[in-house]
Fold this protein.
Amino acid sequence: MKKIGFVFLMLFCISMGVSAQLLWKISGKGLTKPSYVFGTHHLVSAGQLPIYDAVVKQALLADVFLGEVNMQEPNMQQILMQHAQMDQNLNDLVSEEAYAMLVKTFQESVGVPLNQVSRMKPMMLMSLFLVLDQMKQTGQSNLKSIDQLLQERAVQQKIPVYGLETISEQAALLFDSMRLERQAELLVRTLGDLPTMRNEQSALLKAYLEGDLEALSKMADVSQSGMTPQEMKLLNNQRNRKWMQRIPEYMASGSCFIAVGSLHLTGEAGLLKQLKQQGYRVEAAAL
């Protein structure tokens, strides 16, 4: 798993699978109604997830829907692009050899001329490539994430939707928290070995659909990811702690359905552990 980079883990800060480990019930500590937390996968479509309909049904029973961000936030695309663009070209950040490899890889694998997007930050290019490559590998013409689909259904049912962080906060984390040179290094490392990257994607997807949280956590281990401990802490742990300052208030007001990337649920700093430490009862939900 040595090629998994920052953005891939960001996109995979994701879900579980066909067992009830995907969906967890939260009760106790004076809650008048139970809430539910669901691990999502930002590169998996609804059709790939066997329990999707059951998850939607549970989500639509909630009083409030909480996502990582509110995808209905005004000017979402403009905010993302403001953070994703840079004042220099990608070829200023990598060697001639590495740039030639990236040009070839983008054109041959996903049909994107790199010179048309070369002023996007490397982490944005990584995100773009991973989504387009996943669509090509799975034969999908439009990949709409489970997060987005669930939020759209909540809006249709007039369920209030809130984000645990703003679009600007998430974009700053993804595109601004690393030096551009470090972003470029991870981009070259990841796309320089496509067979390995795709094998790792397949392994992660398999673990996700099987609901194997332990396997997911091991695959994203800091020592194997190419990320530093500080980068991994910023990606997951610090955000989890910040979210846990907000989640209890929402749950106290009624039933919440919380949809966040599944890696945010796992480990000692994961939401499941933190909820238990705060005195809530957390158990696998029956579907």
Summary: Residues 1-8, 12-20 have pLDDT under 50 and may be disordered. Residues 231 and 241 are 15 Å apart (CA to CA).
